[in-house]
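Hi C.,

You asked whether I'd gotten around to modeling the 437-residue construct. I have! Everything is below, sequence then structure, no commentary in between.
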Amino acid sequence: MTVKPDGAGKRLEFAAMSADFERAFMREVLRTELIRVKALIVTGCVLMLSLTAIYLTDPGVLDRLWHGGFGRGHVYAILILFILFELWSHASIRRNLKRDHDLHPAWRYIGAFVETSIPTVILVLQIQSMGSIAALGYAMPLIYFVFIILSTLRLDFRLSTFTGLVAAGELFLVAMYYRPAADFDEPELYYHATRSFIILACGVLAGAVGTQLRRQFAASIEAATARDRVTNLFGRHVSPQVVEQLMTEEASTAGEIRRVAVMFVDFRGFTAAARSRSPREVFERLNSAFAILVEIVDRHGGIVNKFLGDGFLALFGAPLEADDAALRAVAAGREMLAAMERINAQSNWPLRIGIGLNFGEAAAGCIGSPRRKEYTVIGDTVNLASRLEALNKEFGSQLLISEAVREALGQGGGDAVARGEVEVRGYERPVAVWQLG
């Protein structure tokens, strides 16, 4: 028998998970966009510093190179406008990150067009000063590659291709418009067309690289999202080993019937003893004990499903199936008692624990809203385990098990002491109880 969530519940849960993934992925893309913008700002500043350094060391070289018609003022003005544009882009991206909003797709294309057109503007000014042959053969057409390479950080094939297309198209159109002679010959046409095609091909290749990076980012974020989902479902106290196993084995978190060993652990008389101690001392003592007990549960293949004040609920056989769940739970319980004896021998605040163990079928699955769920187990098996733990106070014992656990132990439970059939709150008939330890 399996209790399955309805279709609407599944769709809501998937939509919540998908929204979380998309939000995380969007934030990572915006962060890479910030890196790209920072790189362009640095590039603009380096070009300005280089221009200044050349002017200071040899003031006449730029006039000789540009034939006096294209001054430093033009370059400074264009670069300053470019840097201001990128600073504004940087502020806009950071603002969207804080608001958890993505950039509008149209803005990305407008930004790519504006950025890639900067070398074109400088190239046109250089052509008017130096002539088309000298300017087209100079360094400015190579600047297009800076924008194409950095476009990979957009993680978008279409944007990188668009950047390459704008660079290739503008370079070809400028070369055609400013052709040196009226009788423009065919070889020169092929020359410029080939250069533009190479730039376009680089844009496509940059897009392919960006797509691969996007896939790797998506895979990393998906793994992190899955890990966070496991942590949210089973609690932050689930061991890393259990998390990895849950992720690799894809254990079901839908409502289903499982045969589980349920363990309730509680510190006896803890509340009364805590009244005479400071809150810090209470927390430190409780955490030090929990650290050892939880590690024992982990080592025996169980999970601590939830903490209950000065106690906790542990599961064996869910969410990961285990044929020997009862044996694991008993072994963990025995080790806990031995561990507490060692702890108490070295502490001025001895703690006595009570453990209740039951084994049987229970409904296991996730309960909560589509955005926040918790894995838990429900049923009579769980209720009886809780009642057994409470009976330790009545019997002065520390580890009580049910008849089902005693049967599962077989010959391994030879030291179990029968406490008879006991009246248990909430049960019409007496329940057989056994004591270990």
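If it helps when you're writing up: The chain has a mean pLDDT of 82.

Thanks,
B.
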